[in-house]
Design brief:
14 helices, mainly alpha, globular
Length: 336
Amino acid sequence: STVEVHEEPEPGSIADNGSDSRFLSPRSAPHGAHSESEYVSADSIYWSGGTVPTSTYCSTGAELDPSMGSQSLLFGFIMVLSVILTRTAEPIAVAYSKTDNAFAYNVSVVVIAVEMVKFVFSAFALGIQVHITKDPHKRQQLTAFTWRQNLHYIAPSVLYAVANTLLFAILALINPGIYHVLANMKILTTGLLFRYMLGKMLDDLQWSALILLTLGTVMSMPEVRALGTFLASNIFYGFLLCLLQCVVSSLASVYIEMHFKRHRTQSIFFQNMQLYAYGIIVNCCYLIKDHEELSEKGMFYGWTGLVVLAMLVEASVGIALSFIFKFMDNIVYIFV
């Protein structure tokens, strides 16, 4: 079955507000054509020649270009694999950057360095993308924006700054293994926010999977009695901080996905640069409380090769996730 699309805007056209609003939601599809959990981007409608085969619908909302065939699948596989590897390595690298079971460096400086690395990488990648884009109209669209659009990046940058700082606080209390288990609470928080913020329907199978994964997280926790009072106390406070981080991080992720996809013709690297620029500014505010310590010891006191490694892994996580939010969605992210 197909969904006919009429009066499609010219390829690459942008609405007056600077956003690409060509999007077919579940509610705009003809009644009975597909279930409410299925939708497809209008970019995919254009590339498929104005009609959308049933096979291009995806209940998770993944929006890879169907015309690319195996290339699209390979791109999706690389994105998912990158997130798996970087997210697995992230808490391990941060935990190993500790000295005598404590962070011997200023955490805020590391978080700012992470944002700067991501900004520089995105700027370099954007330069290459602009250079290889021959069509002047498409090249202009890569960086077309309004300040009103730009201001939307402030909220997620604040939320990500909080989430990144919480990561270090959590790993000061618990080990990476327990963190990985507790971090799965993000499955349910993201699913709820995904449903109510983006208005995207999840089918019964997806909700069942979310609930089962969350229950699996609870059941895989170590018994408190076997840990001793001190470790049990650490896990309790680590649990509370991890719950807070899951809510904050999920809110930021869903918000940024919504904004990334609202402006589809913008380059992902340009969108990332705006987000990371605000991230640098927001995280610099944390340095105010540490100015005496930094004046005495210097900005990079306590840095070692392992700290640099942790910083690079953190930066890789952010870049990998941005591709998931732009071209796939948060449901794919939490399942990997």
